[in-house]
């Protein structure tokens, strides 16, 4: 990483985290400065750090700890962990936190997800913009401020057992019938956390790629890409399993495959978990981002809850969880947020809810989720577009000139009619336009999808 008078971190600091190529965009010296800026911005006197299994993660996390301690904060390092274990540590210890991970990105990437005490998010509007400005100024040669106190301590602590016990206290899995479950860890952090959590769950686990390896030798740890769940689907069919689970690299997202090896849409899982939590918390608010299926708000209302539509992104949703007091929130990308988990996202807790729902009734997984799959959906379609704003404007003009069409700008462009809707939005982390379409039938879906893509890709 070359620094100088005109340091620009715009490619590294995203909307709600830090992510880039190591060492070209992120190195140990920058990580140290981010640690110092984090303490300076949040005023934290106590910080907890964790990291994933990427080769660069331990050194970056140690450098961040040195920077935070240099500004007077006492640091607890919990070492190898999933992102939701870091959130657990932040919540249960009442400390600000930093997780070193690039989630599902390829091995050459790394990054930092930061939170205040109680797992409260740090995004552009809640501290990340100032953190970036401080790091840019210090990297360009301005001196760091004098610490508010003497340098802090750096100590180690293992919280994996406490994390597992907390999750199991939130979901009753004691009455689950015998199930065989294939789990694809993708060489990511669920290879560490699944054995700890499922040790006391009465199911048989068939493991795939549990060896921690940040070079991802088998496939990318990104289950949102259908190519990365092919091995899981095959294993479910070959072992005649009841269920398949796939986690991303930092194990904060969980994807589900039914007993036929068919992927279950995250919107269906959102509706399933919402139903369970509304039974325990009648009348509660449940959040869903604007790309989840129309089924989700339908189901929430049918079970007496109040649906609230949000932007995409964990920092936005966590803020809305706090504002609304929502019991649960779900995203199309398989992030699931729980009030009982400090409003943070945890793929492992979502997995336990799915297991409890499946294992306490006689139906197969495909039958259980059928009631939550009511519309035809495109999934996310990405297009590389040089002028994203012009493309979105052209799509808006084409569709809003038609009768019965409404549009809003909550997050990108959402166009809605009685029979279909689509959302077109720029990626927060990549030079892409992302399209999601849903309709009452496949023919309508294909027509709307093709119309939008013809404008976007011309």
From TrEMBL:
Occurrences of domain Alpha-D-phosphohexomutase C-terminal (ranges): 380-454
Required co-factors: Mg(2+)
CDD domains found in the cross-reference section: PMM_PGM
GO MF terms held by the record: intramolecular phosphotransferase activity; metal ion binding
One record GO biological process: carbohydrate metabolic process
Family annotation (SUPFAM superfamilies): Phosphoglucomutase, C-terminal domain, Phosphoglucomutase, first 3 domains
A matching Pfam family: PGM_PMM_II
Residue ranges occupied by any Alpha-D-phosphohexomutase alpha/beta/alpha domain in the UniProt entry: 12-137, 162-261, 267-375
Alphabetical list of InterPro entries matching this protein: A-D-PHexomutase_a/b/a-I, A-D-PHexomutase_a/b/a-I/II/III, A-D-PHexomutase_a/b/a-II, A-D-PHexomutase_a/b/a-III, A-D-PHexomutase_C, A-D-PHexomutase_C_sf, Alpha-D-phosphohexomutase_SF
Keywords: Isomerase, Magnesium, Metal-binding, Phosphoprotein
Keyword Metal-binding belongs to the record: yes
Oxidoreductase listed as a keyword: no
Family classification: Belongs to the phosphohexose mutase family.
Entry protein name: Phosphomannomutase/phosphoglucomutase
């Amino acid at each position: 990483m070359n620094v100088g008078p005109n340091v620009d971190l715009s490619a590294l600091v995203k909307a709600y985290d830090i992510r880039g190529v190591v060492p070209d965009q992120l190195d140990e010296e920058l990580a140290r400065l981010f640690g110092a800026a984090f303490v300076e911005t949040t005023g934290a006197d106590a910080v907890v750090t964790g990291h994933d299994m990427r080769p660069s993660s331990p050194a970056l996390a140690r450098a961040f700890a040195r920077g935070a301690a240099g500004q007077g904060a006492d640091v607890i390092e919990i070492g190898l962990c999933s992102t939701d274990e870091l959130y657990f540590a932040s919540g249960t210890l009442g400390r600000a936190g930093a997780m070193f991970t690039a989630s599902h990105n390829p091995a050459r990437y790394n990054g930092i997800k930061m939170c205040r005490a109680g797992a409260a998010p740090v995004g552009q509007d809640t501290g990340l913009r100032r953190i970036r400005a401080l790091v840019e100024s210090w990297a360009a040669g301005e001196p760091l401020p004098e610490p508010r106190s003497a340098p802090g301590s750096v100590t180690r602590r293992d919280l994996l057992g406490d994390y597992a016990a907390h999750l199991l206290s939130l979901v009753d899995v004691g009455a689950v019938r015998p199930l065989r479950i294939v789990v694809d860890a993708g060489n990511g952090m669920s290879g560490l956390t699944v054995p700890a959590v499922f040790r006391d769950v009465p199911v048989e686990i068939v493991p795939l790629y549990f060896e921690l390896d940040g070079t991802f030798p088998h496939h990318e740890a990104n289950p949102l890409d259908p190519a990365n769940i092919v091995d899981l689907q095959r294993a479910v069919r070959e072992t005649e399993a009841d269920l398949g689970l796939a986690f991303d690299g930092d194990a904060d997202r969980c994807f589900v495959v039914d007993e036929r090896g068919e992927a279950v849409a995250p919107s269906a899982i959102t509706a399933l978990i919402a139903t369970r939590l509304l039974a325990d918390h009648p009348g509660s608010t449940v959040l869903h981002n604007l790309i989840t299926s129309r089924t989700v708000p339908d189901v929430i209302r049918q079970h007496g809850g109040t649906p609230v539509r949000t932007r995409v992104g964990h920092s936005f949703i966590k803020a809305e969880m706090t504002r609304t007091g929502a019991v649960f929130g779900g995203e199309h990308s398989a992030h699931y947020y729980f009030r009982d988990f400090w409003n943070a996202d945890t793929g492992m807790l979502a997995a336990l809810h799915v297991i409890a729902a499946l294992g306490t009734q006689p139906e197969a997984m495909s039958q259980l989720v059928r009631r939550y799959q009511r519309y035809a959906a495109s999934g996310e379609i990405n297009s590389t577009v040089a002028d994203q704003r012009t493309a979105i404007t052209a799509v808006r003009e084409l569709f809003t000139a038609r009768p019965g069409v409404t549009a809003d700008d909550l997050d990108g462009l959402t166009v809605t009619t009685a029979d279909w809707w689509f959302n077109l939005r720029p990626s927060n982390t990549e030079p892409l336009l992302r399209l999601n379409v849903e309709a009452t039938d496949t023919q309508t879906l294909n027509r709307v999808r093709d119309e939008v893509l013809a404008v976007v890709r011309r």
